[in-house]
Batch of 2 targets.
Target 1
Amino acid sequence: MSRALFMAKLEEGLAGLPQTQIDEIVSDYRFHFAEAEAAGQSEDDIVARLGDPARLAEELRGENEPCLAANETPKSAGPAVMASPGGQANRWWLLAFLAVAGGGMAVYYLAGHDGRGPTMIANVVPPAPASQAPIAPAHGVRVVISGGQVLDLGNIAQERIEILLDGGGRATAKGRVAELTLHIDGSGSADLGNLEADNVRVDVSGTGSADVSGTQMVDVTIMGSGTVRLRKKPRTLMQSVTGPGQVILPSGQP
Amino acid sequence: MADSTHIQLKKGILELCVLTLLAEKDSYGYQITSRLSDAIGMAEGTVYPLLRKMQKEELVDTYLTDSASGPPRRYFKLTRAGHRALAAKRAEWKAFKAALVDILGDDE
């Protein structure tokens, strides 16, 4: 099949979708043809490897139905809890440095393990590039805890720290930061009451809970039944709670 | 039924793979599709519906660059929400894998 025929069949299969969407989709495959040609592939090969355009069009129609996002957030809570059966003793941790995501932000992924040997993690976490040692940069650190691990970050003195808890894990830290950003997407908890921050942003979706201590500005978003407890009363408090979750102020009442 | 489960499973894994590749480095479409089709043996075209869906969910973003030889390239990059989705899916995958190992045993 030629490129022209592939494109014609694709467009035929997409007929009926809004023209802007068709244009976007067609441009995806135009880019692909150009990039694959630049890589030395023949037109026939490119078409063969792309697959049947009629079927692709069918799939693209499916993707354009509004059924996304809604099922995305709560899904992470269940299986992640399953991954940590009981929090036993014989457990070790691997801190894998994965990527530097621009702006001097280091990204750490924490993968916990139950003593079955490192192969499982090695498969899941790409190896660290040799040129990038896991040292904390001056600007900030991003810590990702996916699973049921407990991570004590110790005494922190950072400009920015971002903590992502995507399972039933737990993070604790003390010290001082200028900016604290915390995302809890499952049943995780963050005990950061002794980590004094100027500005704190917390979002909790799921059943997670957080203790934070922000002095200037605290911005809390809760979707679900999560709890955010404030150790200090900040100058400015912004909160948005959707669901039965709550923000608890230092005095004790919600 | 079994067939649709299989497709859903493959789609989920595909998304995890794309998120992981993009967390390593920003990539243009052909880089992603060729890498994945070599590894999992799938039609390269099916990555684009997924990328489009991920764009709509704001997990990935795109930007254009001029390449030294040939046409301008459109790169995909992970957004912050994309990094979060990666962490969540990684956790799901690990849990799923652990559950499978419990049942099937570890081949190592």
Target 2
Amino acid sequence: MAKIEFEKLRFVVADDNAHMRRIVRTLLRAFGSREICEAEDGASALEAVENFLPDILITDIKMPIFDGIELTQMIRNPDGSKHPYLPIIMLTAYSERKRVLQARDAGVTEFLCKPVSANALYKRVQNVIENPRPFIKVSTYFGPDRRRSADPNFNGDERRKTDSNAFMVGEQVSL
Amino acid sequence: MSAEMQNSKDEEIIVIPPRTDLKDRVLKPGSAGGACKRAIKAAESAIEELSAEFDDWMISSIDELLSKLPQVHQDGLDSAAGEEVHTIMHDLKGQATTLGYPVVAEISDTLCNLLEKTPDVSRISPKIAELHVRSIQTIVKECTKNHDDPKANAISLGLRQMVMKILKHEFERAEQQ
């Protein structure tokens, strides 16, 4: 495990509740981060992502104008978004399976249930940085690989393209 | 069915290798177990310092809830005012534990559960929402923080049992129709 240089990280924190933004900002500042931009709705968050160019977005689900799921879908648009590979941590009081799957299918990188703790937030940030996942591009999805582990019982056809062409795509986008 | 399963069997799936630019830029090689623990400890201390403001935050949320109640009584829980009460309760569900009031988070969760799961929110009496708001007000005013106050726990349990009965009744009614 290597040390995270938080002072080099830029965050956008999107939550319509000012108290929650204050709590998250306090935690991130204590970790060492100094560049934190706050947004109180989905539209301001998208603007902040495009102009502030954060390294990580931490967003709530329930927000005015458009919610955290819609915000994620807009960011994960490989043709229209300025920052389609941005790591996104969804921090929400919704913990139902339905919401978690909705967030996953929108392209969220990590999911964190409120109440937030220093330990849980640190671990999510750490995981985003230390264990970046491949991205999957199909007609119905663009985002981090939703398979967290290989299924040892899977015996179907391997449809994922991992040949040289696919890697060429990866090299192009990583510029 | 997940989006991935909806793809046609013939569709090409492109796997883009993980980007390592962030990792390369902000990870300093070497063991960091101590640094990680120190960062978490510093963050916990920072929240502890912030906690002096938590009671004011809680009181301002309660005042906001109380100010919405007359409109909710007039327009019902399926109105804009009802949605505002739901939003404040949802926020309390997420932050009250951090503010030192886990029982308030439980009570907020109970009301959110009712409003989100009932088949027809217009059938829920605004009195139920008021009962939750007044309970939170009582707990913050009269009970000790955290989970060790028997009165707060009894109030929370009573509300949860009541909401479970209402939901059961509403689901049965919806099925019969």
